[in-house]
Amino acid sequence: MLNMMNSNRPTNANGLQNDGKRGHDLSVFSYASIAAATCNFSDKNKLGQGGFGPVYKGKFVTGQEIAVKRLSKCSEQGISEFKNELILIYELQHTNLVQLFGFCIHGEERMLIYEYMPNNSLDYFLFDSIRSQQLDWDRRFRIIEGIAQGLLYLHKYSRTRIIHRDVKASNVLLDERMNPKISDFGMARIFANDEEEANTMKIVGTRGYMSPEYVMGGNFSTKSDVYSFGVLMLEILSGRKNNSFYNDDRAINLVGYVCQTTTPFVLLVGERFIDSGLPNVFLFQAWALWSEGAGLGLMDPTIGDSCDKDQMLRCIHVGLLCVKENAADRPTMSDVIPMLTNESMSLPVPTKPAFCSERNVITDAVDGNRPEIVASVNGISISDFDGR
């Protein structure tokens, strides 16, 4: 389907072609209209760069603003993500999901056209000491709840069950009212309604947000997204990145024990240890503070007096339940929302967060059962290594 389409038909004022709809009820835009809207993809209109390729802000002559993801010609991953988003997006209509308007295919060009989010992504505010002051407690709680509602829709109420597989701060965009919208479904997977989990030899996602069963064995399910949500929620509460303790360039070329409870999760590949970025230090510290009755020590100080302390402690509690080591012990998103909003609902006691023992790491590596890992770092997806 995708390779047969072109953008040579007459268009209306927004560059929408006259037949209006193609494929999965998505609009087909002409290349000329997208180039004009983005000032020929000028650097001043560039919003960012991801594994798919660069993202540009655009504005049609009608005044409608758009965001354009332009596939990098050298990106094999981008081609797969492009097709995946087109296939998935028809099924997804929710206030907490970014809307895809359509696409453009012109020669070798592949572009996705989205609604424009004027307040950028959540990480733009959350991890900046100045901008984070705009995120008072009520706003942070609304963002947490909105993300939870979006994931609940994907897992339970969309026509097919969707596992996002890359829930993180940079994939949560904020509209003009700072409402959160989950974006970037290039790595998402569709599940049959009776399907509970799946296995893959190609792991995709972002270091620090991937669940242990996914990193270690390639097993993923809705509980994988729950784990990522738990990490993200603790980031929102603390204003700290889960991987802030790590050096991304760290590689230890020694054979020995390196994986302890409070050190980063490490994979052995050949004779090389590689930090996968599972946030053991971050999560362990959050759990330790909570278990010692000092959970408020995790709070981002920029929240200040706006914080509802009981609500904050409850959110930390729920976040820790979401990152439990065993997937079966984590709540579903259907459970998470009443846990967050029903103050009279009793919650189970969270256990120590997931971490990997040295023995498991070395055993999996020696057995040669390690899957390929495609990790997204700082919003850019790269292939870190292949299991041999």
Label this structure with key terms.
single chain; 388 residues; alpha+beta; Phosphorylase Kinase, domain 1; Transferase(Phosphotransferase), domain 1; 2 domains; 6-stranded mixed β-sheet; 18 strands; 30% helix; globular; disordered N terminus; disordered C terminus
For CATH, the homologous superfamily of the largest domain is named as: Transferase(Phosphotransferase) domain 1
Strand element count: 18
Mean pLDDT: 78
> What's the story with the biggest beta sheet?
6 strands, mixed
In N-to-C order, the SSE pattern is EHEEEHEEHHEEEEEEHEHEEEHHHHEE
Looking across the biggest beta sheet, what order are the strands in?
1-5-6-4-3-2
Structural class: alpha+beta
Show unreliable segments.
1-11, 17-24, 245-278, 356-368, 377-388
Termini separation: 35 Å
| Radius of gyration computed on alpha carbons | 21 Å
Beta fraction of the residues?
Answer: 15-25%
Which architecture of the largest domain per CATH?
Answer: Orthogonal Bundle
**Global outline:** globular
CATH fold category name of the largest domain: Transferase(Phosphotransferase), domain 1
Under CATH at level 1, the class of the largest domain stands as: Mainly Alpha
Oligomer: single chain
Q: What does the model show?
A:
- It is a single chain.
- This protein is α+β, with helices and mostly antiparallel strands and 388 residues long.
- It has two domains: 2-115, Phosphorylase Kinase, domain 1 (2-Layer Sandwich), CATH 3.30.200; 122-385, Orthogonal Bundle (Transferase(Phosphotransferase), domain 1), CATH 1.10.510.
- Helix content is 30%, strand content 20%.
- The protein is built from ten helices and 18 strands.
- The longest helix is centred in the middle third of the chain and has 21 residues, at 137-157.
- It is globular, with a radius of gyration of 21 Å.
- The model is unreliable at 1-11, 17-24, 245-278, 356-368 and 377-388 (pLDDT under 50).
